[in-house]
Amino acid sequence: MPVSTCVFDAYGTLFDVAAAARAASAEPGFEVLADIWPRLAADWRDKQLQYTWLRAVTGEHVDFWSVTQDGLDWAMEAGGLDDRELRERLLALYWELPAYAEVPAMLAAIKEQGRSTAILSNGSPDMLQAAVDSAGIAGMLDVVLSVEEVGVFKPSPQVYGLVEQHLGSTPAHTLFVSANGWDAACGQAFGFPTVWINRLGVPIDRLPERPAHVMADLTGVPDLAERL
């Protein structure tokens, strides 16, 4: 069936989640990060995601900003970092995450094809709006959808159901794109044709469903949408 809508995860898919730690490491006063920022960024992201899953399972929902702070606190302690000023700077930078280089042209190409575009993210609405505005891509998106509307994180089917509710696009007509392998797999199980953006070349997750397509970056998404 032809694709009428392209829906994107936000963090790690459109926006570079490692950018906050990388940028801070280059700022005066935070030289301690010079050699360890990649590990800090990876630990921060891993814990952030783990806390969303645990809260979804236990039913103890908080917004994404809370799990983002909790994940950073764990990562800083694991790295032996006890610096409140550094913590506040890293959190501030998270509100200004840049988009990956190919994102503006990719979104523009999809819009030129006449397709709808959307974000579907664990992020809270204010965080997502800040990221979209900072990256300058607001005009290329029809809607930005947050899990806060249903009060549970991905991969709950309630989250994926927001696409049809807001855009009227059935799963079969919606291309879902995520840099999280588990997200792409669960979206596939929901009924979306999905793309996993595997920037790091890691193995595929062992889950009941697998993404229909795998790409190294977002460049090929418009061409794929044309072919489906």
Descriptive overview:
45% of the residues lie in helices and 11% in strands. It has 228 residues and is α/β, with parallel strands linked by helices. The chain folds into 2 domains: 5-15 and 98-227, 3-Layer(aba) Sandwich (Rossmann fold), CATH 3.40.50; 19-94, DNA polymerase, domain 1 (Orthogonal Bundle), CATH 1.10.150. A 6-stranded parallel β-sheet has the order 3-2-1-4-5-6, sandwiched between helices. Strand 2, helix 6 (125-135) and strand 3 (143-146) form a beta-alpha-beta unit.
Write a compact overview of the structure shown.
The protein has helices at residues 19-25, 37-58, 64-78, 84-94, 103-112, 125-135, 157-160, 162-167, 181-190, 221-227, and strands at 5-8, 116-121, 143-146, 174-178, 194-197, 213-215. The chain is of the alpha/beta class and 228 residues long. The protein has 2 domains: 5-15 and 98-227, 3-Layer(aba) Sandwich (Rossmann fold); 19-94, Putative phosphatase, domain 2 (DNA polymerase, domain 1), CATH 1.10.150.
User: CATH topology of the largest domain, which one?
Assistant: Rossmann fold
Fraction of residues in H or I helices = 40-55%
Rg for CA atoms: 17 Å
Reading side by side through the largest sheet, how are the strands ordered?
Answer: 3-2-1-4-5-6
DSSP strand count: 6
Order of helices and strands: EHHHHHEHEHHEHEEH
CATH class of the largest domain: Alpha Beta
Uncertain runs with pLDDT below 50, 5 residues or more? none
- Average pLDDT: 97
Distance between the termini: 7 Å
Number of helices: 10
Largest sheet: 6 strands, parallel
Assigned CATH architecture of the largest domain: 3-Layer(aba) Sandwich
Overall tally of domains: 2
- Strand-residue proportion: 5-15%
Overall shape: globular
Broad structural category: alpha/beta
Q: Please state the oligomeric state of the protein chains shown.
A: single chain
**Looking at this structure, what is the CATH superfamily of the largest domain?**
HAD superfamily/HAD-like
